[in-house]
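Deliverable D4.2, example record:
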Amino acid sequence: MTAAGPFAVIEFMEARPGLVAELLRAHVDDGTGHCLGCSWRQSAVPIHPCSIRWYAERAAEALRHR
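Output generated by the structure prediction step:
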């Protein structure tokens, strides 16, 4: 994470609602408690919700409250 912190990531996503929707669609529970969207990137698949999903959920929440 850069010095700007997590809010910079959320603001980046908020400016791209299509990206937020795609991330929420892709980063779902794979049925075993792991993230389906992250499964192809690494052998140790992150627990769901992954950090990408968490950021996308915060951005989606902010978009809903606009």
